[in-house]
Design a protein that fits this description.
TIM Barrel; 345 residues; 12 helices; seven-stranded parallel beta sheet; 9 strands; alpha/beta
Amino acid sequence: MIYIFEVSILNICYRWKNSKTINVEEYKKVYKGHMEEKTLMLWGDKRYNNLSQFFKNKFGQKIFKVSINGGFSCPNRDGSIGIKGCIFCSEEGSGEFAGSVNLSIGEQFKEVKEKLSKKWNNAKYIAHFQSFTNTYAPVNVLRDKYYQAIKEDNVVGLAIATRPDCIGNDVLELLDEINQKTYLFVELGLQTINENTAKLINRGYDLACFEDAVKRLRTKNIDVVVHLILGLPNETKQDILNSIKFISNMDIQGVKLHLLYIVKGTPIEELYQKGKFKLLEMQEYVDLICDCIENLREDIVIHRLTGDGKKETLVGPKWSLDKMRVLSAIDRELKNRDTYQGRLA
């Protein structure tokens, strides 16, 4: 049996979801009482609050994300903060599956639509600015690119991946403007709350900067999705759970849980080849992900549960290439534990 939410609190959830801020402790207290009743499944066939079902509930149909390359850079690469970037970041700026920077935004959309239209005639899309830092440009440039994306046919929302130190007041006002016109969420790459690890991976900003960015985005009622990486060098299981518990006590709406995988030519590859750390085995990762799910607040939407690089440039772990096998193993482990998201939150 799958235990998720009680229908009787849907109105409460809706009011919280649509408010500018959330009282996390009050939210958890109410949720906890209803979770113990173990009655109704509202997450489709999953034991966690998954993005696919969230989109179906919100838009009434299946939604596809189109990864856009906006041609942006990153302050951690151009010398403003650093020149090498985060040590795990690829030459594509963690946008291996985004469109080509040589194509216009319209052309990138056209490529994806042509592939999907054969199977889904009435597909709807979220435009996802994914590669590098997608608020790192003059506001007039950002506005032009964002509006190009949301004006594409059948686009119902916008996702913007960025750094918390790249959301100035002018950018925040633009994001607020966009949020009034379409569904918007902003992705922030936290990766870990461990400051020693943050220095090792050359993240380039401290935890206080992240916290401030989240608070400022939420004052505009903009949904925030946080990125965490599992398997970073020297991090223990407790370090990872500390990060999960930390974000669960923040006013965030989504999370992406990434497997650390090694891409050729990245600084972290050199550490790995020197034997400075080991990559997670598949069952280790599955067990760890399930621990994270159990400790994650129930209303936080899980946008991703693994990571998969390009076969041509992936150093390891090779098992990550079989994404469906990994996701099936996670589902199976949750079922074996008879557990669900938020059980230990």
